[in-house]
Design a protein that fits this description.
Elements (H helix, E strand, L loop, with lengths): L2 H22 L1 H17 L7 H22 L15 H32 L12 H30 L4
């Protein structure tokens, strides 16, 4: 196994573990939301800070799950036009799409880390620091960027390979 494949294997494993962390936050998110609704409806006593906690748990869930969704090709694709193209044209469209995605996600990573480093505030009710969650934009985006890079490399390899 070459250095590229070794690096890819490690990154893809990290992506799976980060998605697992994101998935683990789903149960507490559901429980706290349910408890808050029940407390608000039956006892007229909402749980303080539920909105803030829900925001942050959703951020963890989404930002750490996006790269995994890309890894398993779970993102929505629109192929009503490209499915009529030939193999080479489809792959070329995919190269363009992945290149643009790398550019956009790269900007997201850069700005996520920049804002995370600059952030010094805390939430209003629970006084939870905001910086780690803004840094999560950079971390989750970085994993997404790497997965997009792997997909681009696979697509370019398929483009230069002769069809079987």
């Amino acid at each position: 196994m070459g250095a590229w494949q070794g690096f890819r294997s490690v990154v893809e494993r990290v992506i799976r573990y980060s998605a697992t962390v994101g998935m683990v936050t789903l149960l507490p998110l559901m429980l706290i939301t349910t408890a808050d609704v029940l407390g608000r409806s039956f006892f007229n006593k909402p749980i303080a800070g539920t909105f803030e906690l829900s925001e942050y748990m959703l951020a963890v869930l989404i930002l750490l799950g996006a790269a995994y969704t890309q890894q398993v090709k779970g993102h929505v694709t629109v192929a009503f036009l490209t499915h009529t193209f030939g193999r080479k044209a489809q792959l070329t469209c995919r190269v363009v799409t992945l290149t643009l995605s790398l550019l956009i996600v790269g900007i997201l990573v850069w700005q996520g880390f920049k804002l995370g480093i600059e952030e010094a505030g805390v939430t209003d009710q629970l006084r939870v620091p905001r910086a780690p969650f803004k840094m999560l934009v950079g971390i989750g985006g970085g994993l997404m960027w790497l997965q997009l890079l792997f997909d681009l490399a696979d697509t370019l390899a398929a483009l230069v390979r002769r069809p079987a």
